[in-house]
Amino acid sequence: MSVLVVGSTALDSIKTPNAENPKLLGGSASHAAVAASFFAPTKLIGVVGKDFPKRYLKLYEKHGIDVEGLQVQEGKTFHWSGEYEVNMNNRRTLLTELGVFEHFTPHLPQKHKSTPYILLANIAPALQHHVLDQISKPRFVVADTMDLWLNIAMNDLVRLIKRVDLFVLNDSEAHQLTEEDNVYAALKKIHKLGPKYVIIKKGSHGSILSSPKGCFICPAYPLHKVVDPTGAGDSFVGGLIGHLAASRGNVDKNIRRAMVYGSVVASFCCEGFGLKSTTLVTQDKIEQRFKELVALTAF
Amino acid sequence: MSVLVVGSTALDSIKTPNAENPKLLGGSASHAAVAASFFAPTKLIGVVGKDFPKRYLKLYEKHGIDVEGLQVQEGKTFHWSGEYEVNMNNRRTLLTELGVFEHFTPHLPQKHKSTPYILLANIAPALQHHVLDQISKPRFVVADTMDLWLNIAMNDLVRLIKRVDLFVLNDSEAHQLTEEDNVYAALKKIHKLGPKYVIIKKGSHGSILSSPKGCFICPAYPLHKVVDPTGAGDSFVGGLIGHLAASRGNVDKNIRRAMVYGSVVASFCCEGFGLKSTTLVTQDKIEQRFKELVALTAF
Question: Is the Cβ pair B182, A215 closer than 8 Å?
């Protein structure tokens, strides 16, 4: 079955202690859609400016991503610039130029409105609501977020959390949302906001699912070197929903494996700047790392 | 087979945001020996002062721990006092009174010198060497450490690391020792110092083993509330060596399960002050949590 991904489509300028890369293809929807495309037919909803490089459109197409819902507007593409510290865990935003994103209203092409698997990747909660309003009877809705929306759009976000099946956030966001230091205590509080499934991402420490069938401790793939972690969380959730959409049977049966596949795609994402490493991934490479994770966690 | 544990035997005064507990039974060897005792016959090497409460000696004996190698000397027992922050991850030392520990020289009773499984729990590396010098042909030697020895006894520690089969340390110590932020890069560097097996402990994020048979990502048991994490790392390594000593077959076959059992004992340790929760553990409770960890990680 197919996946609809809405989120940011951006140009990312990323600085690390070792390198500087201007205007890479980025944004939550770009990372998530490419990740999902390895498993299921994927449709992208977003907006870019007239300056958006043709090679990036071709990259979406190379991955079979349906870009009918990608608006190309007069003006500049959303541009984010950030810098990572030596340990690659802490980053600071250097620049945010919203461009065409400032007045973006997602419109779904008619044929997109019955997509069964919906990923509301990181974007303003109001826009996530707006997309969800246009969908009729989705099978499974996933939403991701970021600290910015906890700071400036908490009410919208809390209303959104009620509407989704799976809510995904990272550990510091979970702490901010629940005021709980303990990840399991935080999961419990987030369930009370509505969603049946909650995942807290912990970067290189993996992720934790809380579901009706109990918790799952999902490993991160062991990387000896992280080149650029930007988009790893988006790749995780994209791979997850892509694999869910491609699997037979119910969510409880499939979600653990889907998370591990998400971890695998996220690991590739971290090995190159922007989407450079992710776009080179093959099914064989994904299956290889999945098998490695089986071996790395068996006892 | 039996386990010999050397390390600190102390009185711990522990302050958390919610409570204050003076002069609990503590020290690396106390935690590790009790943890090991759930799986294998355990001998303790350490020193206490004349002030050491009889009820604590009885507690060792309740767990069947051989205390023939525990010296009782004129003077005061080593006393450590520490305070935890709200998130229970950061702690600071308020007070360290070495007492009889200042001039401690571990002497092994003759019958202890052929013990097959040796745990050099956290203590000055010079004392760890001194114990190892008295052992003839051990089957498996494990050493743990702490940041203090990296700061003031690095040469002794590096010489010790060469002599052990398994070296265990936490993630911040691994960073300090190797100057690597990446845990897998750090593991690689530590192998170069000599040991065949290296484990990096990551607190609530579990631990990572690097071994001749590859890496293992070991989960932490999910706790919704941590009362006092003091001694959790010692309990982990104590449970690990106890389970190894009790298992048939070679280390590579058994070490992963031994780590998971170590995680289980460490989880009980965190649920009470000092050894209060650990001493109430039963085989049934251990097996229950082991099974839960199987279920929590299966995919």
Answer: no
